[in-house]
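Worked example 3 (structure in, sequence out).
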């Protein structure tokens, strides 16, 4: 819904320019200075003209749709004062083999492991995770957001009825955010999916290039972006320059890479600075949890080591390698890279 209001704003002249106590405004001037227009970071449009005694009479058009007002849940969870946050994906090959109790226990352990959010493509699984996380309100650690990945990593140009049903169901089941490909954002808007539930949900835009970033911005989405963490630094920097500085940027990485390269890459992304631009504030580890005995151990390892400056010995909850299902280690990038049974099995079957 949109609303309109008019106010009078007093703006003084300072060294030939405009001064205001409000921040993050973009100005456009007309010369000689008789009118002005600017937009703040909340997409509120201001316009006006100079009246008597140098007082600038401003009209404010607060025409902001629901989608341009993020809930702040994702931003609060994924943006850290120091370091980089870690989110994990739950993607079992056969979800029917994972019981509700298994999911409840996994949800608890992931919260204790200090993951920043849990991602899934399954609406039913999302409901179990969300219910368990909500039970932790008022406790420490508190609940973490559950994110619904629409179609996971599959592409597509259509938004069918089943897709709409799943998105609505995910919101009803407690999703804090949904991930949408940039090419589906207009269809998402046209179908008014958010208003079906009368609830708030953040939208994370999955983008791969500058054009897709612009598509998201054109549709009014600038809160959070998901990009591949495997892009070259030069490509990453170009995309970061096109994203608003206040946005949350999540970089996705594959799990259990040889030599634990996901750890090294996450550290590198955390240190990738582009002046006056967005930065990578979070990483998503794909397939971190698949429903096996290494789920929690691996997630704990990733969270601990991504934000650890250095480590001379492999450490994981004080347990031995055998107890952790850890078949050995090798030094890599200042920490000991783990070798996992799951990865060994995958390599053996390929």
């Amino acid at each position: 819904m949109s609303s309109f209001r008019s106010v009078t704003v007093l703006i003084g002249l300072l060294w030939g320019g405009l001064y205001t106590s409000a921040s993050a405004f973009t100005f456009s001037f007309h010369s000689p200075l008789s009118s002005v227009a600017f937009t703040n970071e909340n997409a509120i449009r201001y316009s006006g003209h100079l009246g008597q005694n140098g007082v600038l009479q401003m009209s404010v058009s607060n025409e902001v749709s629901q989608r341009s007002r993020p809930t702040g849940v994702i931003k609060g969870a994924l943006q850290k004062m120091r370091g980089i946050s870690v989110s994990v994906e739950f993607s079992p090959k056969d979800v029917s083999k994972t019981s509700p109790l298994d999911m409840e226990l996994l949800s608890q352990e992931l919260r204790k492991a200090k993951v920043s959010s849990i991602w899934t493509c399954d609406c039913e699984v999302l409901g179990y995770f969300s219910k368990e996380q909500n039970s932790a309100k008022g406790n420490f650690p508190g609940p973490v957001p559950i994110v619904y990945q629409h179609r996971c990593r599959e592409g597509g140009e259509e938004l069918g009825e089943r897709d709409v049903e799943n998105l609505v169901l995910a919101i009803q089941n407690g999703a804090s955010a949904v991930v949408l490909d940039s090419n589906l954002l207009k269809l998402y808007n046209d179908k008014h999916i958010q208003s079906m539930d009368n609830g708030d949900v953040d939208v994370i835009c999955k983008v791969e290039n500058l054009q897709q970033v612009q598509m998201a911005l054109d549709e009014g989405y600038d809160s959070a972006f998901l990009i591949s963490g495997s892009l070259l630094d030069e490509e990453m920097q170009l995309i970061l320059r096109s994203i608003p500085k206040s946005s949350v940027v999540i970089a996705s990485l594959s799990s259990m890479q040889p030599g634990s390269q996901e750890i090294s890459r996450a550290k590198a992304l955390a240190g990738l600075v582009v002046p006056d631009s967005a930065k990578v504030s979070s990483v998503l580890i794909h397939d971190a949890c698949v429903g096996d005995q290494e789920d929690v151990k691996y997630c704990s390892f990733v969270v601990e080591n991504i934000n650890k400056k250095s480590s001379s010995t492999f450490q994981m909850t004080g347990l031995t390698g055998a107890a952790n299902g850890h078949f050995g280690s090798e030094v890599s990038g200042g920490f000991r890279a783990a070798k996992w049974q799951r990865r060994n099995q995958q390599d053996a079957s390929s």
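Notes: Residues 1-68, 311-333 have pLDDT under 50 and may be disordered. The radius of gyration is 23 Å.
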